Amino acid sequence: MNNISPKVQNQLGMLQQIQQQLQNILQQKAQYEMAVREAKRAQEEISDSADDAVMYMSVGTVMMQKKKSDVNAKLTEKTESLELRIKSLEKQEKMLQGKFEQLQAQIKEALEGKGAPAAA
Question: What fold does the segment set 6-115 form as a domain?
């Protein structure tokens, strides 16, 4: 590591930061995707029940009785909101992936360029 220039060391640090950001985004995306699946599954379950069936919805730490249409509307709203967040995370992921690949190529070029004259 001592024979690597400070610029390349700095780039390696940036590369690690980008990699960490990518991992965080992927974790968030996975959590949101799971929440979307759960909301859709809940909608499927309530679609089979009668319109006048007793439904309960969690509001904070309290369970409240709600109409089927209200529960369905809330689940649809939640799904749409989560899907927007997922799309936003996918954009961030794509941008960071591009930066990662660009920085990786720069580091590789710097290391190979430095290694070539030493080998000669």
Answer: Helix Hairpins (1.10.287)
Phi-psi region of 66 (alpha: psi -120 to 50; beta: other; left: phi over 0): beta
Q: For CA atoms 93, 94, 95, 97, give the dihedral sign.
A: positive
pTM of the model: 0.80
Contacts of 52 (CB under 8 A, 6+ apart): 68
pLDDT at 6 over 50: yes
The predicted pLDDT at position 118 comes to: 47
**Domain residue extents for the chain:** 6-115
